[in-house]
Amino acid sequence: MCSCNPPCVPYLGMYLTDLAFIEEGTPNFTEEGLVNFSKMRMRDPSVPYRIEHQPKVTQFLLDKTLVMDEDTLYELSLKIESRIPPG
């Protein structure tokens, strides 16, 4: 079993789901018209992520030569996961 010291990098899908839930499900203001600080605290985690800058990762993510058009991505997705269910 692996372990790490928090905070670790969260799964992006879960993080975005949580943010969407907080944004859509919690009002910005209380019934008294005051700023809902509870909501603001939910958006901003109290433990900062200490991620060191990795120039190679940044360079890879910003490399426009690696961007594929929609048709190419679709064709690759069909190779990975066929639309015809196994039967």
From TrEMBL:
GO terms for cellular component: plasma membrane. Keywords: Guanine-nucleotide releasing factor. The keyword Electron transport does not apply. Residues 1-87 form the Ras-GEF domain. One of its GO terms (molecular function) is guanyl-nucleotide exchange factor activity. GO terms for biological process: Ras protein signal transduction. InterPro entries: Ras-like_GEF, Ras_G-nucl-exch_fac_CS, Ras_GEF_dom_sf, RASGEF_cat_dom, RASGEF_cat_dom_sf. PANTHER family: GUANINE NUCLEOTIDE EXCHANGE FACTOR (PTHR23113), RAS-SPECIFIC GUANINE NUCLEOTIDE-RELEASING FACTOR 2 (PTHR23113:SF187). This is Ras-GEF domain-containing protein. It comes from Coregonus suidteri.
